[in-house]
TrEMBL record:
<dbReference type="Pfam" id="PF17132">
    <property type="entry name" value="Glyco_hydro_106"/>
</dbReference>
<dbReference type="InterPro" id="IPR008979">
    <property type="entry name" value="Galactose-bd-like_sf"/>
</dbReference>
<dbReference type="InterPro" id="IPR053161">
    <property type="entry name" value="Ulvan_degrading_GH"/>
</dbReference>
<feature type="signal peptide">
    <location>
        <begin position="1"/>
        <end position="18"/>
    </location>
</feature>
<protein>
    <submittedName>
        <fullName>Glycoside hydrolase</fullName>
    </submittedName>
</protein>
<dbReference type="InterPro" id="IPR029062">
    <property type="entry name" value="Class_I_gatase-like"/>
</dbReference>
<keyword id="KW-0732">Signal</keyword>
<dbReference type="GO" id="GO:0016787">
    <property type="term" value="F:hydrolase activity"/>
</dbReference>
<keyword id="KW-0378">Hydrolase</keyword>
Length: 840
């Protein structure tokens, strides 16, 4: 009874605001092409979003569709604001939230950005600064949003840019929840007109005599120190004049803020910290070794990299440190080519975001499209199609229900991370940059350039692998830390057992002062391998260096300060818990809800299926599977260590929660056996395009694209039917399951008139309830829906007229002109023999 009540409470615990807007449900980017929107279609699409289980939309005006020019609505015009207000009002009626970008396309810029406010790039020529306008225009701009990108370091560019919005929103009543700033993409920008003045004021010396050191490639003395000062000045101007200015304006006007800080030359932790909802980005496909999980072979890792949980943790760390409830993500950008993304590919990417601390998913995304526009409607060039014309639209609600169940727990719990890891950005700034403009851009794509290959990255990769729960902390954030009565490091929102400083060379004296203050108060600090060697910055370096080294010696003598290479040993001495689940090949995040510890655990690999594990902060646990409900885990003591028996197959995820009253058992694993589902199959095509292929009989399962010329282009749903027998001895076994093998892509299973469920994620395994099977004459019906890729192969041969968009039109995943006509058929249907699995 207790578990049933707990499940009901978890399902009910949705995060809402005053208008009953759910943040537990996933939201979606919603591109308004040319802002050619009409009220009847807005309402119709919002109704669809609501029924599919979405919680809100994010309006992004972009370029338009050809043929719809007469319906284009200029951005921020009275008509555009009317449509925006209508969307917010209709959303409230449905319980859907609305966010919007403070602009069109990306990054910020537009018609009110003069050349004087445009982004600037400085190059050192003959020892002097040579400055030019980058002439970068807003990318993918909507009508009324075209223009120059403004200088993110300019003292008044942001405020002048926002005057358009002051005027536009002066009479607006129905406002979006949040304003949004996309990732920093001011390519080559590295200067502003008062940079030299600001540099001297902040760094204490004139940069001009030292400009040539910025271009140093032979490790001249002091070059690294000057590069640090130059980058730090840019970072401070970016935070104060760009991020902070926009955030303050948004809050003054009643908006929350969602901010993608990545890609910028600033310290991401400080920039994410400026926003109400820090937002990271999952671009491309992670290479999870989950059996059966497909990746698009055309995706270019060299060009775009792959998603990385450590990069994602910059957003969640800022939120955890400052006590912000929501951390969002632009999710599944370019997950695979158009018309090729399955729900089974999306779930592991979302699970990776969850274990990285993300709890507010924004799909990337959906495109506003007139309801009566011919298939496939209006589409955005770089997204997974989550809209009504998607091949998984009928089953989209299943993914959304999974996300909602997970996020309802993740949002209503607090982080339980033991370790703070200092991010030594000055060591990065000291190195020559490979990005345009000679500045380090901390992007989500090529994380090897600024994260993985540095000592900080190597340390945090090891901590992640070894099962430690940690957040990152910046120099600026360290100043806010205090030591509480238990000796923990407290940020005011979260507490940590210890701080670890990666092996580094440079550190600001202000940071060293913070460490001294914490150590004197009893805070535990670990230096990995060595203490820092140099004070950051060139100004009066020799004078400051002497004091710096004296303070380093003073700090290293404190009782709570340790220096060593055996990180595991030092962390254990400071009471840090090492979780065994990571050693087993599982990924996790640990949280606390109502004083009780909760783990979200995801099997994103192929090393674990089931076995005994110990949980660092739970002795007895219940397993809450968002797809299959709650069950109590068996428990035993092994050499004085409490263990629970967990079954979690590759691709599966669950919550593990504190429980009581579990019986102690010594062993629960039996020998796994199976019997094949034998019989001849009938396949009948039920619905889809371009037409229904003829019914066929199959002696063995395989892709339906091999059946006939018409089946090779078919996109839709087919029903498989088979009659089969089951050995009498198997019927008495407990825990019977149907292993569907390789399903392309979603399967609804019925045996003897009883529906087992709809299966859309790896592994495709269905529980068979007691009494459903019989010894002779079982009838199984399986309806399978495939991708739309095979139909688009034909469509692009016959009628490629759907590609009718301005700007980039529709590019493929290699950023070449999209053409599906030469694709090979995508396997569809049930591809492998089915079997009934049981344990002896």
């Amino acid at each position: 009874m207790r578990l049933r009540i707990l499940l009901c409470l978890m399902s009910f615990a949705l995060t809402v605001n005053a208008q009953n807007i759910s943040t537990a449900r996933p939201w979606t980017y919603w591109w308004w092409m040319g802002s050619a929107v009409k009220k009847q279609d807005i309402k119709a699409q919002l109704d669809i979003f609501k029924k599919s289980g979405l919680g809100g939309v994010h309006i992004i005006p972009i370029y338009g569709a050809k043929g719809a020019e007469k319906d284009f609505i200029p951005f921020l015009s009275p008509k555009w604001l009317e449509m925006m207000e209508y969307t917010v009002a209709e959303g409230k009626k449905l319980g859907l939230g609305v966010d919007m970008t403070t602009g069109t396309g990306w990054p910020f810029g537009g018609p009110n950005v003069s050349t004087e406010l445009g982004a600037l790039q400085m190059e050192v020529v003959d020892g002097a600064p040579s400055v030019k306008n980058t002439k970068q225009m807003v990318k993918r701009a909507a009508p009324g949003g075209e223009g120059l990108v403004f200088n993110p370091f300019h003292k008044s560019a942001m405020s002048q840019y926002l005057t358009r919005f002051d005027s536009a929103f002066s009479a607006v009543r129905e406002k979006p929840r949040s304003m949004y700033m996309d990732s920093y993409e001011a390519y080559g920008a590295n200067w502003t007109e008062d940079f030299l003045t600001e540099f001297q004021k902040r760094r204490g010396y004139d940069l001009r005599p030292n400009l040539t050191l910025l271009k140093d490639s032979v490790n001249k003395q002091n070059a690294g120190l000057v590069r640090i000062d130059y980058q730090q000045t840019l970072a401070e101007l970016l935070r104060e004049r760009y991020a902070n200015s926009w955030t303050k304006w948004s809050r003054d006007h009643g908006f929350k803020t969602r901010y993608q800080a990545h890609g910028s030359p600033g310290n991401l932790l400080d920039l994410y910290d400026e926003s109400d909802i820090p937002e990271t980005e999952s671009f491309g496909t992670s290479r999870f070794p989950i059996p059966g999980l497909r990746v698009d072979p055309d995706y270019s890792i060299k060009q775009f990299g792959t998603p990385n949980p450590l990069a994602m943790k910059f957003a969640s760390s800022a939120a955890h440190f400052s006590g912000k409830k929501l951390v969002s993500s632009e999710t599944s950008t370019w997950l695979a080519n158009h018309f090729k993304v399955s729900l089974s590919q999306i779930k592991p990417q979302i699970d990776e975001l969850f274990v990285s601390g993300i709890n507010h998913i924004f799909y990337h995304g959906t495109t506003y499209s007139p309801i009566n526009d011919p298939y496939p409607g209006w589409l955005f060039y770089a997204s997974t199609n989550y809209g009504p014309t998607s091949h998984f639209a009928e089953h989209f609600h299943l993914l959304n229900k999974y996300v909602e169940k997970c996020q309802s727990i993740l949002q209503e719990s607090k982080p339980d991370n033991d370790v703070l890891v200092y991010f030594p950005i000055h060591d990065l700034w000291a190195k020559p940059a490979r990005s345009s403009g000679g500045v380090h851009l901390l992007e989500v794509h090529h994380v090897d350039r600024w994260l993985l290959d540095l000592p900080f990255g190597k340390l945090t990769q090891q901590l992640w692998k070894d099962g430690y729960s940690f957040d990152f902390v910046s120099d600026r954030q360290l100043e806010r830390l205090k030591v509480d009565s238990k000796g923990n490091l407290a940020s005011g929102a979260t507490s940590y057992k210890t701080l670890i400083i990666p092996s580094e060379t440079y550190m600001p004296e202000e940071t060293l002062a913070s460490l001294l203050r914490l150590a004197q108060a009893g805070g535990k600090i670990i230096f990995q391998g060595k203490t820092p060697e140099q004070v950051a910055g060139f100004g009066k370096h020799d004078e400051r260096q002497k004091t710096f080294l004296e303070n380093v010696v003073q700090l290293s003598r404190k009782n709570t300060v340790q220096v060593g290479t055996d990180v595991d040993k030092l962390l254990a001495q400071n009471g840090v818990v090492q979780e065994e689940v990571s050693k087993k090949g599982l990924s996790y995040i640990r949280k606390i809800k109502n004083g009780k510890v909760i783990y979200f655990v995801s099997n994103l690999g192929n090393a674990f299926t089931e076995g005994w594990i110990s949980l660092g902060k739970i002795k007895v646990a219940a397993k809450n599977d968002p797809l299959n409900g709650i069950s109590v885990l068996a428990k035993r003591d092994s050499a004085g260590i409490a263990q629970v028996y967990l079954k979690l197959l590759p691709g599966q995820s669950c919550f593990l929660e504190e429980e009581s009253g579990v019986a102690i058992v010594s062993n629960v694993k039996g020998k796994v056996k199976s019997v094949p589902v034998s019989g001849n199959w009938d396949i009948t095509f039920l619905k889809g395009r371009p037409s229904l292929p003829e019914t066929a009989k199959l002696q063995k399962l395989g892709s339906w694209t091999e059946l006939s010329d018409s089946a090779v282009y078919f996109s839709g749903t087919a029903r498989y039917t088979v009659t089969f027998d089951v050995p009498k001895s198997v019927l008495t076994k407990k825990g019977l399951q149907l292993d569907l093998g390789d399903v392309r892509e979603v399967a609804t299973v019925k045996i003897n008139g009883k529906v087992l469920g709809t299966f859309w994620s790896i592994p495709f395994i269905a529980d068979i309830q007691s009494g459903i099977l019989k010894e002779k004459g079982n009838k199984m019906e399986i309806e399978v829906t495939n991708l739309s890729a095979n139909y688009m192969r034909l469509r692009d041969k016959q009628l490629p007229d759907w590609k009718k968009f301005y700007d980039i039109n529709v590019a493929d995943i290699t950023y070449k002109k999209f053409d599906a006509s030469s694709w090979q058929p995508m396997p569809s249907g049930l591809l492998e023999p089915l079997k009934i699995v049981y344990q002896e």
